[in-house]
Amino acid sequence: MTTSAQDDRRVPTKATVEHPSVAERVARGQAARAEVPRSAHAELDPGPKRPDPIALLEAQAKSRVPELVPIRYGRMLVSPFTFYRGAALIMAADLATTPTTGLQAQLCGDAHLSNFGVFGTPERRMDFDLNDFDETLPGPFEWDLKRLAASLEVAGRDRGYPADARAAVVRAAAASYRSAMAGFAGQGNLANFYARFDVDEAVARYRATVPAKVLKRAEKQLAKARTKDSMEALARLTHEVDREPRISADPPLIVPIADLWPADQATRFSDWFHERLREYRRTLSTDRRALLERYRFADLARKVVGVGSVGTRAWIVLMLGRDGRDPLFLQVKEAQPSVLEEFAGRSVYRNAGHRVVAGQRLMQTASDLFLGWLHVADSPDAGERDFYVRQLRDWKGSAEVEAMVPKGMRIYAQMCGWTLARGHARSGDPVAIAAYLGNKDVFDRAIAAFAVAYADRNERDYELLKEAVASGRLEAQTGL
């Protein structure tokens, strides 16, 4: 079995690190304009050799749990927006055909608007940040922004916004990114590293300018997010057996290990899984490892998560501390190669779980207390796999897109744009990127035009999915 420590040693490091001057970094950004004009980012022309989008989805399905794949297709069938959420690979293939600046940053890889949200930091403050890094990888900074912009256009259409309102939302995201990047370019490295989006401060700042109805809805969502922790999960997801909590069944979305296999096989797998968690502990810092060791393994269940992730192996683990009212829920989620790797180059991390954790820690202000990874070479159900681990719930909350009015979505778009710029500034060169973007809205308008073109493309691909299900090429299970 490959251990986490061995994975660390396999990560290559540079012998020397270059430190160009600010003037040289500005010149690099301005030179990129000559190679790829900002207006060129409006282009979307994959050409006649564009891969069949349904074939790309089928290829992904080959490595997933077969009986869960129809749930993925069913969730993608709900609307063009849910299709978009599950179509990160399709868009990655399309982005690879667009003009690229060569200005690299750590990418989220799937920066659509529903992959931003609020979560509790270890200091028990609430931040707004990116919250899904399954596809994280270094790449051209604009790929993340185009993924975000197109998601706003698709969501605006889903909500029935007129074209001018949708365009205003997308331009707001791009302008916020550009303005934020200029700010990050003008301050020191530590200031950029410490920058954070404090949710309570934001609510206070917007109170005088946001309609009361929008603000009230946001405050209600924040209050709800603060209740989403392991205690809430204990009440929602468990029942009592012999005075101990056990994870409740909700098939096929949640299947306890005791229901997944015969008793002997389930016991062996549970014991095997417990041993793997011991290896995961090695990826935690000493203080967090000591905290985790105060909890004992209690139960395990398979869980269906997300839209694009459906079918990858995901487990929830119930741990108990001082007693049955001191729970810790962990999510152990399979990490596969990023959808960007075929187009932006292979990750330097051999372990895909390590890739996810490294990218998340690089882009987020504060990551989950128990964020770590593991590799298994002898999984009884899946062979050799990589996983990452985090808390199942810790003050997590995401935007209710279906309830957003145009002004609310425009503010949300600005929040996302700032947050994405902060993540890129921590990992890329904010000076060069800011020099490339400039002070005018040329780039903003190009991104808005791209978003419209890609939303049109997404609608056509969505129709192809419906046709594939109707013809029997794909099987979809809806309503889950």
| Uncertain runs | 1-9
Q: What is the rounded Rg?
A: 22 Å
Task: Give the proportion of residues in helices.
Answer: 40-55%
Tell me the number of strands: 13
Structure characteristics:
six-stranded antiparallel sheet, 15% strand, 13 strands, 480 residues, three-stranded antiparallel sheet, single chain, alpha+beta
Protein topology:
Elements: H1 4-9, H2 22-35, H3 53-61, H4 69-76, H5 80-86, H6 88-95, E1 104-107, E2 116-120, E3 126-130, E4 137-140, H7 141-158, H8 163-185, H9 189-194, H10 199-206, H11 212-226, H12 230-237, E5 238-241, E6 244-247, E7 254-256, H13 257-260, H14 263-280, H15 286-292, E8 296-303, E9 314-320, E10 327-335, H16 341-344, H17 352-363, E11 372-379, E12 383-391, E13 397-398, H18 406-427, H19 430-437, H20 442-471
Antiparallel strand pairs: 1-4, 2-3, 2-13, 5-6, 7-8, 8-9, 9-10, 10-12, 11-12
Helix pairs in contact: 2-19, 4-5, 5-7, 7-8, 7-18, 7-20, 8-18, 8-19, 8-20
Description of the structure:
- By secondary structure, the protein is α+β, with helices and mostly antiparallel strands.
- The protein has 2 domains: 20-225 and 400-471, no CATH class; 230-391, no CATH class.
- 49% of the residues lie in helices and 15% in strands.
- The chain is built from 20 helices and 13 strands.
- It has a 6-stranded antiparallel β-sheet with strand order 7-8-9-10-12-11.
- A hairpin with a 3-residue loop joins strand 11 and strand 12 (383-391).
- Helix 2 crosses helix 19 (430-437), helix 7 (141-158) packs antiparallel against helix 18 and helix 8 crosses helix 20 (442-471).
- The protein is globular, with a radius of gyration of 22 Å.
- 46% of the residues are buried.
- Residues 1-9 have low confidence and may be disordered.
